[in-house]
Amino acid sequence: MAMNIIISNSSPEPIYQQIVTQLKQLILEGDLKEAEGLPSIRTLAKELQISVITTKRAYEELERDGYIETVAGKGSFVAAQNKELLREKRLRVVEEKVADAIAASKTAGLNQQDLLEMFKLLYEEI
Amino acid sequence: MNKESLKLRKTESLKDVDYILSVDDLSKRYKNFSLNKVSFQLPRGYIMGFIGPNGSGKSTTIKLIMNLLNRDSGEIKVFGLDNLRDELLIKDRIAFVYDENHYYDELTIRDMAKFVSSFYKHWETPVFKKYLRDFDLDSKQRIKELSKGMKMKLSLAIALSHQAELLIMDEPTAGLDPLVRAELVDILSSLIQDERKSVFFSTHITSDLDKIADYVTFIHNGKIVVSAPKDDLLDQYGIVKGANTLLNEETKTLFVGIKPNQFGFQGLVRDHEKARRLFKEQAIIEKPSLEDIMLYTVKGEQL
């Protein structure tokens, strides 16, 4: 199972959020497949040397968003992904990031035209 | 044990089924210091760090839990049982590690273990031997030949070999090097894997142990400042840095403590979102460490 979770202690993002983001990424990119088992919250906490409450909170959020399912006594699994839902989720990820970029450019005093130009330029490069 | 007390105990254990340790309104008065209505709860399967400066009441609280001191008032329940009435029952299931050498220097590890094992109903020699191997301890070594780190590991090996469900440690990292502290982190997170055991440890330095702590109880001047999941504390509090001109009568009320200098100020706020709304881009707001929370709270009170 190709499952890497890298926690940064200096990031302003709460640790549980870092786990949520990275696991979502792994699921959306297909590195974690449908019905694949996830480590238990306690194993994950032990391996990452963080609190059990942190990993528990991350799993609860993933469950609420429909990414994983938890079966009592059996553990957590990647939930079945409906294709349309998947596409919607990916769109939402893009939307969030664009919204972040817009907020940042407003703070920096860039107008819509400036941002669109930067966008075109970067789109070619990446 | 009469029938009535048995019945009482059953309902109690039902009510407190989630809490392995529950301290309620605990008070103890001394001439120069008093422990004032200390309350907190530790759920089963989790790790709690008990933090506070020297002389804040950590050891007094732990001694009261272990019934090594007499309390003035309040209540302590361990495994849902009263810590005075059911002391022996409780102590058989508690592992207590504290920062003093309480073994006989001249004995070897093996002889010491033989002696100690007689105190416990559920002593398991194979488990003890496994821990000695895991911890790289040689049973033929004499206690006096052990380093501080090795003594702590011996205490832990003994503590973990009688099926204890609650591990209580008073200042376990004092004087230990970073390597041994890292080992301790591993040992403790392995210990709670079965969801049955809990760990309660005190420390006056916020240390590497804190990163695996699920709950933090912060005591200062004999009073609990806060007892909460660690993540909640770290998510709510914030360190604010900015120009001194940002500080006025109104904004100052947000702070737990402020440290101004010639070129600006640094302070701790209890609600970082509120601070962000108020200061917007004018101030830098960072995640605090437990040490920040401890320092500013203690300093803030002195101002």
Explain this structure to me?
Helix content of chain A is 59%, strand content 6%. Chain A contains 5 helices and 2 strands; from the N terminus they run αααββαα. Chain A has helices at 15-28, 41-48, 52-64, 83-107, 112-125, and strands spanning 68-71, 75-78. Chain A has a two-stranded antiparallel ribbon with strand order 1-2. In chain A, a hairpin with a 3-residue loop joins strand 1 (68-71) and strand 2 (75-78). Chain B is an alpha/beta fold and 303 residues long. Chain B has 2 domains: 17-231, Rossmann fold (3-Layer(aba) Sandwich); 237-302. Chain B is built from 11 helices and 14 strands. In chain B, the strands form 3 sheets. Chain B has a 6-stranded mixed sheet, with helices on both faces. Chain B is elongated, with a radius of gyration of 22 Å. Chain B starts with a helix and ends with a helix.
Question: For the record, what CATH class of the largest domain in chain B applies?
Answer: Alpha Beta
Proportion of strand residues of chain B: 25-35%
- Compute the average pLDDT of chain B: 88
SSE pattern of chain B: HEEEHEEHEHHHEHEEEHEHEEHEH
Count the beta strands of chain B. 14
Average pLDDT metric of chain A: 89
Helix content of chain A: 55-70%
Write the layout of secondary structure elements.
The complex is a heterodimer of chains A (126) and B (303).
Chain A: H1 15-28, H2 41-48, H3 52-64, E1 68-71, E2 75-78, H4 83-107, H5 112-125
Antiparallel strand pairs in A: 1-2
Helix pairs in contact in A: 1-3, 2-3
Chain B: H1 3-15, E1 19-29, E2 34-43, E3 47-51, H2 58-65, E4 73-78, E5 81-82, H3 87-91, E6 94-98, H4 109-117, H5 125-134, H6 148-159, E7 166-170, H7 178-191, E8 198-203, E9 215-220, E10 223-229, H8 230-236, E11 238-242, H9 249-252, E12 255-261, E13 264-269, H10 272-279, E14 284-286, H11 290-302
